[in-house]
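Risk register update: the risk of archive-format incompatibility is retired. Evidence:
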Amino acid sequence: MIADELILVSVDDHVIEPPGLFVDRLPAQYAAAAPRFIRRPDGTMAWVYEGVEIPNTAVNAVAGRPKSEYGFEPVCVEEIRPGCFDIEARVKDMDANGVLGSMCFPSFVRFCGQLFLDHGDRDQSAAMVRAYNDWHVDEWAGTHPGRFIPLALPIIWDPELSAAEVHRMARKGCHAVTFSSNPHALGLPSLHTDHWDPMWTACEEEGTVVCMHLGSSSTVPITSPDAPIEVIYSLSPIGLMEAASDILWSRMFNRFPKLKVALSEGGIGWVPYFLERVDYIYSHTQHWTGMDLGGRLPSEIFSEHVILCFIDDTVGIDNRHRLNLQNLTWECDYPHSDTTWPNSPEAAMRYLADLPDGEIDQITHLNAMHHFQYDPFTHIPREEATVAALRSRASGWDVSVQATAHLRPASPAAV
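Archived output:
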């Protein structure tokens, strides 16, 4: 298979939410409390909710910008590609990259709606979550049928309300929910309790995948306050290794045998050793801890229930025979700093080129279609879904790298 023949479905991208997100989507009593999109005096953009400003940082929206402009400082609308927040431009950017389908994680509300957990009256914030989900499913994912895998926020402080939202979203065709990789770090009960059982029950009943994204614990691994950013980035997968341990030893899969969890942006190269390690541990500890996994090895449970997601992972692909090939999925990570846009097909072929076509198809789209109950081919014929076909639709669309920092409006103080 060559790059032009690939069919690419990304299970990890991101949306920079547009200003009108909450308009006409809230009950009347909460409309005035909705998050507001503002431009700050220095020209940068932010959302405001309950008096708290949430800026958009540069590393969250760098697609098409030179690496020298990456960073954590806030940015303005003029500095980022319209595809970050405008659905029509996003589809054009997907076409130009040869990407058929995309699952988009939230930005300013944080990975699993922590903004609404931390601020606002509970009933009010629950209304905000529902409004956000309606926008995401109906407008963002719904404007171009077949191009997006919808993803819902949970009402994370209440597992019963979260369960109801999982059911409500499933009726809209959404079978993925974003969740924290470590709820205990958010001040919530851990995965080792039965607190989350109502939500797991709903996810199991609807076939909804629980997506735990890197960073969704709102913590970062760091060795010391003076460690350079490269240390944090090097250790970033640690959070999902912790999540892998939690979900495995919590025995949630023993109690919910149809439940699936995706470790989003977690990579796969570390997993073969992790599986070897947990089997070795279990062979020594089960005799004195009372841990009972129902007659199965930890690696068997993990391989059945955990969907793995990666951007670029040659080591993982080389060791795929040690993993469940049916649970491997591909990511683009647009528009974050790790993205391979606009050359994702070529980047993927660096590690896929020697694989059989059937395995390539599983990793690039078939597994995602199966797990997330997503069938783009009901809307787009398969022959029109390849990299070459999609790119032909975006002929002339500008994907060149452009410096944009100079476009930020001058602050009043500088005038």
